[in-house]
Specification:
- This protein has one helix and 25 strands.
- The chain has 294 residues and is mostly beta strands.
- It has one domain: TolB, C-terminal domain (Neuraminidase, 6 Propeller).
- The strands form six sheets. Strands 14, 15, 16, 17 and 18 form a five-stranded antiparallel beta sheet that branches.
- The longest helix is centred in the N-terminal third of the chain and has 4 residues.
- 50% of the residues are buried.
């Protein structure tokens, strides 16, 4: 089934995120503006000003939005402190933890903890990453593992026995770009397994799943100097390629979220816009903590 893209919001800066909230609103972050934005009823409003460089976002059971703040390490000496921030419904901002150095993305796990990717270093290195698990009540952050590659998007699939992480790779000699699966047992990560590879021309960023276990991956072009646009690559629950969707001519379609209404939300980071793509055949798999136990 073909997807058809349309603009949902414009003038949002270099956007990432996106979160389809329990109340139906869509929340994204504006990385260059240091803002968290709420899109509802065709209107975009600033939920909170967090400064620095927000990146990933997710929603908690009480309606608070949790974001990764990339901070100083990857974005210059004046970018501020990295860590995890919480935005309450009234827009007030607080720190959950400042242990991860330059976190990129986050999601809740079935155990109620936040799982966080912390690439630490950006281009050209991309070789010093970490995965954390964070208790939002105490702020305690547990280092799950260190990685010799750039961990980007993170999420839980149809089954809860593994955490999936986007391995974004650009420089020659690095491990190939892929979605990596880590078996999870009692809060401990097992040995990484390749779930899908996104090919030599595109690197994975954020991703989501539908209720059939299919994965949608926002993929940025590896070559900034050619005309190759970014893509959304779609694979089934066994890692078999299903489709490639090209939302437009820009190079950075960084992240995606799929709603229960089967509408795919895409952050067009280069295009200063949030897109919506209609026409998928299955609803989105709800995120934790809103997912019903199987």
């Amino acid at each position: 089934m073909s997807l058809v893209a349309r603009k949902l919001a414009t003038g949002v800066g270099r956007t990432e995120g996106p979160v389809i909230c329990a109340d139906g609103a869509i929340v994204v972050v504006s990385m260059d503006r240091g803002e968290v934005l709420r899109i509802e009823g065709g209107k975009t409003a600033v939920l909170a000003e967090v400064g620095h460089h927000p990146n990933g976002a997710t929603e908690g059971s009480g309606g608070a939005i949790y974001i990764t703040q990339a901070g100083t390490q990857r974005f210059g000496p004046n970018a501020g402190t990295g860590g995890i921030q919480a935005i309450a419904k009234d827009g007030s901002v607080s720190w959950v933890t400042q242990d991860p150095i330059a976190p990129n993305d986050l999601c809740f796990g079935p155990d109620g903890f936040l799982y966080v990717t912390d690439p630490t270093r950006g281009r050209p290195a991309r070789d010093d990453g970490r995965l954390f698990r964070c208790d939002i009540k105490t702020g305690e952050a547990e280092l799950l593992c260190s990685l010799p590659w750039f961990p980007n998007g993170i999420g839980f699939g149809l089954e809860d026995d593994a955490v999936y992480v986007a391995r974004s790779a650009v420089p020659p000699g690095r491990p190939e770009s892929a979605i990596v699966r880590f078996p999870l047992n009692g809060g401990k990560l097992g040995k990484e397994e390749i779930f899908v590879q996104t090919g030599p021309t595109h690197r994975p960023d954020g991703f989501c799943f539908d209720t059939e276990g299919n994965i949608f991956i926002g993929c940025n072009t590896n070559n900034e100097h050619d005309k190759e646009p970014g893509q959304v690559q779609i694979f089934d629950r066994n890692g078999k390629a299903l489709d490639v969707f090209v939302p437009g001519s820009n190079k950075h379609y960084t992240n995606v979220a799929l709603g229960t209404d089967r509408v795919l939300i895409i952050t067009d980071t280069e295009g200063d816009a949030v897109l919506a793509a209609d026409g998928w055949s299955h609803p989105g798999l709800p995120l934790h903590p809103f997912r019903r136990k199987r």
